């Protein structure tokens, strides 16, 4: 990196990770890199950025991980490949992790860059452990480019980064994905989002139906689905699955509890239900994940 955003770089305080930038866009507006960190010793990453950060976990296992952002949102449990963190400019963030060699992609999008794309001043919403296929595919596309700042790679990198900028402006801004969607009816304000998060967290081991969320928020199912996706970027069902899998990963990595017990405690109907869902999301079984955390 050329150091154009020196005060926006993450810092690992407990160790000095070996960080290797593989791709960079030579602009103060938008940058991209792929890095690898050795976190065999506990690492503490902190951000207090002047740019908007989008970080995507690509590979590597963690036995321990906890992240927190300034608004109080917390993500606990090892991330799965493809999960993303959005840290808006000016929003303090910290994370503590331990594991093996991890690989991640990092986009840095300046506020001016996003304001220019949107035609107005916008603010992004913090996101932790977000499963967003578009962001994941954008990171993989850039990570797969050959090393070297040739004109083709730079043109492709800029195209992908501009597409990502337009996407996060449309889907992860504070006031919802688009004005037209917001105009269709009342959305989920911060209080509504907190109520949903608390309700799902308190009932994670039980069956959670759309009717439960509709009753909680006083919405029809149609409006709930629109408002929920506008607020969280995914459907209610996927959000609940992500929460359950996050808790399952945490329990697998940090406790000796039986996998069937963990399945029931996290809202899955059986050992096999957890195993099949877990494998689809992470590529490994719960048993294999646990073994990896012990190495």
Give an overview in words.
The protein has 295 residues and is of the alpha+beta class. Helices cover 42% and strands 21% of the residues. It has three domains: 6-171, Sandwich (Jelly Rolls), CATH 2.60.120.10; 179-233, no CATH class; 238-294, Homeodomain-like (Arc Repressor Mutant, subunit A, Orthogonal Bundle). It has helices spanning 111-118, 133-143, 151-171, 179-182, 190-202, 210-217, 221-232, 236-254, 259-265, 271-282, 286-294; strands at residues 11-12, 30-38, 43-47, 52-59, 62-69, 74-76, 83-87, 93-99, 101-109, 127-131.
- What is the overall silhouette? globular
CATH homologous superfamily name of the largest domain? Jelly Rolls
- Residue runs with pLDDT of under 50 for 5 or more positions: 1-18, 178-184
Helices and strands, in order, run as: EEEEEEEEEHEHHHHHHHHHH
Q: Which CATH class of the largest domain?
A: Mainly Beta
Number of strands: 10
Set out the fold topology.
Blueprint: E1 11-12, E2 30-38, E3 43-47, E4 52-59, E5 62-69, E6 74-76, E7 83-87, E8 93-99, E9 101-109, H1 111-118, E10 127-131, H2 133-143, H3 151-171, H4 179-182, H5 190-202, H6 210-217, H7 221-232, H8 236-254, H9 259-265, H10 271-282, H11 286-294
Antiparallel strand pairs: 1-3, 2-9, 3-8, 4-7, 4-9, 5-6, 5-8, 7-10
Helix pairs in contact: 1-3, 2-3, 8-11, 9-10
Would you summarize the structure shown here?
This protein is α+β, with helices and mostly antiparallel strands. The chain is built from 11 helices and 10 strands. Helix 1 crosses helix 3 and helix 2 runs antiparallel to helix 3.
């Amino acid at each position: 990196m050329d150091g154009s955003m020196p005060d926006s770089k993450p810092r690992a305080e407990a160790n000095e990770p070996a960080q290797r930038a593989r791709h960079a866009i030579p602009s103060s507006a938008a940058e991209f890199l792929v890095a690898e960190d050795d976190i065999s010793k506990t690492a503490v990453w902190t951000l207090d950025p002047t740019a908007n950060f989008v970080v995507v976990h690509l590979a590597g296992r963690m036995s321990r991980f906890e992240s927190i952002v300034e608004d109080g949102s917390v993500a606990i449990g090892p991330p799965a490949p493809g999960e993303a963190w959005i840290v808006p400019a000016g929003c303090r963030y910290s994370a503590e992790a331990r594991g093996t060699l991890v690989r991640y992609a990092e986009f840095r999008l300046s506020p001016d860059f996003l304001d220019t794309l949107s035609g107005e001043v916008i603010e992004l919403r913090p996101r932790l452990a977000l499963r967003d296929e578009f962001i994941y595919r954008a990171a993989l596309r850039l990570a797969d480019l050959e090393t070297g700042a040739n004109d083709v790679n730079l043109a492709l990198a800029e195209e992908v980064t501009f597409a990502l900028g337009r996407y996060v402006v449309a889907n992860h801004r504070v006031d919802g994905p688009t004005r037209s969607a917001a105009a269709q009816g009342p959305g989920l304000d911060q209080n509504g989002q907190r109520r949903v998060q608390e309700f799902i967290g308190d009932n994670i081991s039980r069956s959670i139906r759309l009717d439960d969320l509709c009753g909680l928020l006083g919405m029809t199912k149609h409006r709930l689905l629109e408002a929920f996706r506008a607020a969280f970027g995914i459907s209610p069902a996927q959000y609940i699955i992500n929460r359950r899998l996050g808790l399952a990963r945490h329990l697998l990595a940090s406790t000796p509890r039986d996998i069937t017990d963990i399945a029931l405690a996290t809202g899955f109907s059986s050992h096999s239900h957890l195993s099949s869902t877990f494998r689809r999301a992470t590529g490994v079984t719960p048993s294999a994940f646990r073994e990896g955390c012990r190495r």
